[in-house]
Amino acid sequence: MNRMDGKIAIVTGGARGIGRTVCETFAREGAKMVFALDMIPGEYSAENIKHIELNVINREQVATFVEQVQTEFGRVDVLINNAGITRDALLQKMDESMWDAVINVNLKGVFNLTQAVAPLMMENGKGSIVNIASVVGEYGNIGQTNYAATKAGVIGMTYTWAKEFTRKGAAVRTNAVAPGYVMTEMMATVPDKVLDPIRQKTPLGRLGDPQEIANAILFLASDESSYVNGHVLSVNGGLRL
Ligand SMILES: NC(=O)c1ccc[n+]([C@@H]2O[C@H](COP(=O)([O-])OP(=O)(O)OC[C@H]3O[C@@H](n4cnc5c(N)ncnc54)[C@H](O)[C@@H]3O)[C@@H](O)[C@H]2O)c1
Fold first, then answer.
1. Is 18 within a domain?
2. Which of 25, 29, 34, 138 is the most buried (most CB within 10 A)?
3. Range of the domain at 177
4. Would you call 159 a catalytic residue per the annotation?
């Protein structure tokens, strides 16, 4: 018995980094279909992963896609709100376009997907939503006013949806994973002079691997976590201790 047997899953930002690893993990764990939503092309080793070109901030594209899934499969079991961007600068140097870009993808994108998918889950009586937050949303970071605001916002939405989507008796769970620093393309622009002190401050002494984040997401997405709702799971090597 695999942990995602027969499930229909949607993963935003599924073309690379953590999202791609989540898609591959779900496919390996027996998912019936994993939809990898991204603006950039993605390559996958499994036949049960389908790439969909889509921008999470485009509500029309999102609505059309979710309608197609509903028509084809009649349900969505799992939604992973993973797509996210950074536009870093100290507050005084952060211009409006940097603020708007990050708010749009990291907050509005999560709002858009969840608003389209949650009603189907509630109708179906069950589902699991996992939002990808960040250690930065839990304790801030210099140069990331916009990003920290969105990731703290994602945590607030997680708590809200854990209450809202269950109120008619549906087992629609909402949880979040808050990764520490993980080696993906997103981190490629961060210089070693920033990363080295993070490694030193982390009790495990290293950055995370995308698979280590995907493992936590898999737990929350699967029925193994059937009584976990409204939880933020920190996966950061002990960075905040
Ligand atoms: N890497 C880290 O250290 C780290 C730490 C904490 C949290 N996170 C979070 O994890 C998630 C994944 O991060 P990652 O490191 O894999 O990043 P990444 O940049 O490697 O991948 C993000 C993916 O999202 C896609 N994407 C961006 N904007 C999009 C949009 N508007 N519509 C559709 N797709 C879009 C990108 O094309 C990309 O494929 C993000 O939410 C990020 O904030 C990452």
1. yes
2. 34
3. 8-235
4. no
Ligand 1 neighbours (beta carbon < 6 A): 12-13, 15-19, 37-40, 55-57, 82-85, 105, 109, 132, 134, 179, 181-182, 184-187
CA 17–ligand 1 middle distance (angstroms): 7
DSSP letter assigned to residue 131: E
Model confidence pLDDT, tens digit, residues 24-68? 999 999 999 999 999 999 999 999 999 999 999 999 999 999 999
Tell me the CA–centroid distance for residue 18 and ligand 1, in Å: 7
- Residue at 158 is within a domain: yes
pLDDT digits (tens, 9 = 90+) for 81-110: 999 999 999 999 999 999 999 999 999 999
* Total-model pTM: 0.98
Testing ligand 1's pocket by substitution, the residue of 55, 85, 233 carrying the most ligand atoms inside 8 A of its CB is: 85
Query: In a 10 Å sphere around its CB, with 0-12 CB exposed, 13-18 middle and 19+ buried, how is residue 58 labelled?
Result: middle
Cβ contacts of residue 189 below 8 Å, gap of 6+?
none
The CATH number of the domain holding residue 180 is: 3.40.50.720
- Output the CA 84–ligand 1 centroid distance in Å: 4
Query: Tokens 């049960």 correspond to what residue?
Result: 48
Nearest to 62 by CA among 133, 103, 118, 18: 118
Q: What's the order of all strands across the beta sheet hosting 232-235?
A: 49-53, 33-38, 8-12, 78-81, 126-132, 171-179, 232-235
